[in-house]
Design goal:
It contains 16 helices and 20 strands. The protein is an alpha/beta fold. Helix content is about 30%, strand content about 15%. The protein binds 3-acetylpyridine adenine dinucleotide (N01). The site of 3-acetylpyridine adenine dinucleotide has 26 residues, from helix 5.
Length: about 525
Amino acid sequence: MAPPQHDVIVIGAGFAGLRALHTLRSAGRRVAVLEAGDGIGGVWYFNRYPGARCDIESYDYSYSFSSELEQEWRWTQRYATQPEILRYIEHVADRFDLHRDVHLGRRVVRAQWDEAAGLWELTTEGGEHWAAAFVIWAVGNLSTTKQPELPGQADFRGRILHTARWPHADVDVTGLRVGVIGTGSSGMQSIPILAGTAAHLTVFQRTANFSVPAQHRAISGAEDAAVRADYPARRARVLASPSGLGFRPRREATVEVPEAERTAIFEQAWDGAGFGFGLAFRDLLTDQSANDLAAEFIRDKIAQIVTDPTTRELLTPRDHPFGAKRPVVDDGYYATFNRDNVSLIDIRTDPIDRLDASGIVLASGATHALDVLVLATGFDAITGSLLRPDIVGRNGLSLRQKWSAGPITYLGLGTHGFPNMFTIAGPGSPGLLINVLVGIEQHVDWIADLLADMDERGATRVEATEAAERDWGAHLLARTEQTLYPKARSYYMGDEVPGKPRVFMLYTGGLRDYRRILAECVADSYAGFEFDKD
Ligand code: N01
């Protein structure tokens, strides 16, 4: 084999992969990014469904590494829409000349560590071979779509669309009968928009979900100027906050706050905080009584909004704590069910049996004629895109084998048996429990520093030790047990895919603690990692 042309291969050209390319290339490394899609942007390239937008404020869901970039980009909305985010990503790629090292249409299907050569050898779906000393998986937590196998799908004469594989050309549902399966963020964001033009919209709901209003608004020139003048302080507030959103939860226990004051705090958060509603108090995800109060507040809101009693009850979440399953930030979701052209079907009590030529047939025999069926059914989350390729480490150990009972990592960055391999914002890290942009930048900078440290040591190989990842696993479990997360069936726990191991896959201790732990690891000469030269 010819000598490799690259020091580092990064898989994925979303926010994480592009940041890794820029940072590592700026440090003088030869980097290539392999991207399965036909364009850059990762989830923001693929998730083009109507209403798709971020639920973290635009300024905070942006790169922080360049003050010039901060000053020259103008966000127009409090929560950026998918097209605006994709334009931003394209701008970054042009601005930092990233395209030349991004190779599109390359789905990596195999990665094999060659112990003698000290290289990762990668194979793409098209049969190309790539090699590099280091490999970084920047494949995202929510990128392998879940397409439920519905019997009779081939018979259906209408169109089937997945929210995360939405066509690039406009989809016009004017005058059509539309069905949506799934009421997570994608479903709840798209339902109000689809209802606006469809002749009839039928929502097939399995689990009622908590949602808080996004309170979208345009960003005025004055607000934008104020943010730009204050960017460093804003970034500092984000880094000091537990979730990377810049919100500091109140210190008091929820139940200790007098009822009238507590309700006023919830009202204020409902009216303005968007996703920050969940951070109104510090203990909403650790104390059941506190959580009950927040959940009841939202149930009351639903009761005030939805007029039909049967629909209202169906939309009211009662089977999990607020926030233990990813809550949604919506724009008019509950009110949409007051429209005459919208109906809600409870597929928990009357499951979907099959599709036939004209639409959905339920177990009871009831039929719903459709022209378009939207699958808002989500993803094989967190580990899906890491276990889809065949990743083979030292001594022929495959990642699928190693993670057969759930992901095992050290700090969410490396895993024993897989030298010179890193994951960004994936399992074992805070991942998507925090502002993932902050998590991504933190990981990329940490890896860049580690590689620089290896240069100084004269080391060429780095690998997490077995003991370190065992301790980290125990720490993850201990932190999770302090929370209400295990009380919900969620994709955090692997519940979204039948047969997936049921373990909580992320670090729940928050951004500040995680940053401290990563800094301590560095200060201790990268304790928990082994090098071929110390
Ligand atoms: O996916 P989901 P999503 N039969 O997994 C249902 C991020 N995101 O694409 O709850 C019937 O949340 C499933 O039902 P149940 C965000 O992190 C962010 O909506 O399993 N129903 C559920 O209702 C989000 O959390 C933004 O009972 C089936 C839904 O489909 C994550 O992406 C926007 C089914 C899936 O919900 C994923 O969101 C969009 C089946 N076989 C997404 N399988 C923003 O930034 C699944 N369901 C705002």
